[in-house]
From TrEMBL:
It is found in: Cell membrane. One of its GO terms (biological process) is transmembrane transport. Belongs to the binding-protein-dependent transport system permease family. CysTW subfamily. This is ABC transporter, permease protein 1 (Cluster 1, maltose/g3p/polyamine/iron).
Amino acid sequence: MSSSRPDAAGAAVLDAAAPLSPEAGIAARSRRPAVGPGAAPFLQAAPLALVLLLFLVLPLLVTAAVSLWDYTEFTLVPDVTLRNYREMFEGCLSGGACSTLRTYVSTFKLCALTLAVTLPLGFAVAFFLAFHVRSDSARTALFLLCTAPFLTSNVIRMISWIPLLGREGVVNRALLGSGAVDRPLDWLLYSEFAVVLAFVHLYTLFVVVPVFNSLMRIDRRLIEAARDAGATGRQTLVHVVLPLSKPGLAIGAIFVATLVMGDFVTVGVMGGQQIASVGKAIQTHAAYLQFPAAAAQSVVLLAVVLLMIAALTRLVDVRREL
């Protein structure tokens, strides 16, 4: 009498046809992806996109909308008008006095002077850290030393210059005592010199960091090859190091130019309310509750800064640093 046994194929069929237990079904469902593979990148970028939408895009849209409002001495009128832009450029096209043009010329002058000092100074500091400091711990310590002033308020750091640069300050007393001058120098404080000096003090580090990043990416074998080819230190700096550090210099210039163009606190404190700047004009409109006029000035300033950034990025490819 022969007994029948299910073969391996039959066992597999019976196992597949057998109903799954509740625990096995839950485990199988848990292994299934909740979303498709194409949606995962969008979900990962959603938090950052939401933050940018709420705190960048939305405020810009509100500012642009308010710039089209009208206003009186006592209230805002939510109406669509170009009055604020017409008043801003009043006299510029007719050949008369154009206060906006003079303000932008003064701001561009401050920006150019600040860049003329911060770029070489920041490059020198970054070059020293990248090529002359061999120890990583020493390099980190020097970086922390550079960032130490940022632990205090910008206003306090600017006010600290007043006892040094005032008529009765340390610098004037030293110059008078040495006989270098016969009377105190008035232009040391509450002048364009004082404003540029404060800008250099505040913003040089914003050049050091991106330039240092560019210098650390330079292949040291290129410098050795230049030396082996007979290049002097100056030739190596001009033809090898500087071209490869252009992206860092461009990023530092963007940082400094953006900060200087919109600054009003430094100009007010160090300029003694005597230096015109776009940021100061916006702050004055806001202080007098002329928010539509301030918004219009802000929109124009944003457009000018974006044009400056676009020009710099056309000259230098900064995407290599990003």
